[in-house]
Every structure is written in C-alpha cells, then in structure tokens.
C-alpha cells in the first residue's frame, strides 16, 4: 500500500465561508463578541450592554446564567445599578411581600403583621344618605328603602346609587343601594325616622342585606304598631350592623316584612369605615 506525506500549510484569505456562515475578516478589541446579522454574516462587535469591552468574570461580577442546567450559583458582592425600568410579576423584599395590584385613590400600604403588604384606604370615608320626600310605593316584603339623595359623602369606598331606576331584583344596580368597596370594615346604620302604619296591628321587619348575594347582614329589627285604630305615624327605629365585604358589594336596608306599612316619610342611612 502506498503512503503519502501531508504537510500543514498556512492559508490566508480575505473571505472565508464555512457552510452558510461568512466569517469576519477584521479583528476587534479585547472582549469583543462575534455577532451574526441573522443573514449568515458574522462580524466582531462590542456588546451593547457594556461601556467597553467585556471584562473577565471575577468574584465581584454579577452572575450571568446561560440557560445550561447543572450550574452552581454563588453569592456575589457586586452592586446592580438599574438605569432603566424594571417590570416584575411579584416582589418580595426581605421579609415583606408587596401587592401586585394597585389600590384606590388615596390608599396606602399597610401590613398585616405577617409580612404581607396591601393597599388600604387612609382617608376618612363616610356617607349620609336620605329619603328626599315621602313615598307610598314599593313598601312590601322584599323591597328596600329608597335612599335617593346624598346629604354628605367623603372618600371613595362608599357609593350610594341615586340615579338608577328602583328595583327589588337582586344582583343589579338600584336606587337606594349602597356599594361598599372591599378592604375596610363598615358600620351600616339604617334609620326609619318617620313612617305610617295603616292599621293598628301593623308591623314591619328591617334588616341589612347583601343585595348581590341576597343574604342577610346582622340581626333584624321588628317594629310593631301601638294597637291604636286608624293610621298611626311612628318614628325613630334605628338598626346598626358591622360588615366586612370580601368583594365590592351592594347593600340595602330591606323590608323583610311590612304588614300595614303605607308610607315612608323620613329615612336615613349612615355608612362609615371603621
């Protein structure tokens, strides 16, 4: 069998292509990268994320993960100074977990004492609603009092509906229903200051209700007539409950029963954040 001797020669060319890749033909400075233009042409460039050539990795350098499994990360003494904007899906700083959704206007971050921060109203929130005129309709069991005017309101957590048409249907907007926002707890006060029972045996039962879920809130107040004949005017029943909604909720002061109730003259609702 014949044998051949091969000798290595130095080859020089201004244009070398390997497969589909055209190699660069000029050098850069120390630390430069070889970058593709996506069309098969490689060139030597300074990386855009450095002020100069990339330096060697040291114990003071930030960790850069290349996606390869089996890597060991060690603590770095480097300081990261972010000059741009950083968007995170969640943030835990030290022992504090920050909220990921914004609060209402004027809210502030408060802690639950267990390291969880959340937005809570800081302003004094109160609402004083009223019945602007006597009315004689919608006074049967299942109806609610028609608070149709706002005497005073502060804050954004309590809203009285004075614009929507009245309805006793649950889970929809209605005149006289009060929306309380989730977060704080509330004191709900209902006052039936003047009303008329058409018969001496008349009676009514008042109770606060979650108008969205059609569920009662707190205890009911039963009011009975005085046993006099004819229409009798009464006043001053007051019903107070404390309520913490788990979601933004519409509440109402409902007539659970209303035997003989013929007119409402003066009624008020006071809703306060506590």
Taken together, the total number of domains comes to 3
What's the story with the biggest beta sheet?
6 strands, antiparallel
By CATH, the architecture of the largest domain is named Sandwich
Question: Unreliable segments (pLDDT under 50, ≥5 consecutive)?
Answer: none
Q: Determine the oligomeric state from the structure.
A: single chain
- Approximately how much beta-strand content do the residues carry? 35-45%
* Overall body shape: rod-shaped
- Count of DSSP E strands? 19
Q: What distance lies between the first and last C-alpha atoms, to the nearest angstrom?
A: 103 Å
CATH T-level fold name of the largest domain = Jelly Rolls
Instruction: Output the radius of gyration.
Output: 37 Å
Task: Count helical runs.
Answer: 0
Order of helices and strands: EEEEEEEEEEEEEEEEEEE
Query: Which class do the helix and strand fractions yield?
Result: mainly beta
What is the C-level CATH assignment of the largest domain? Mainly Beta
The average pLDDT is 81
Level of helix content? Answer: under 10%
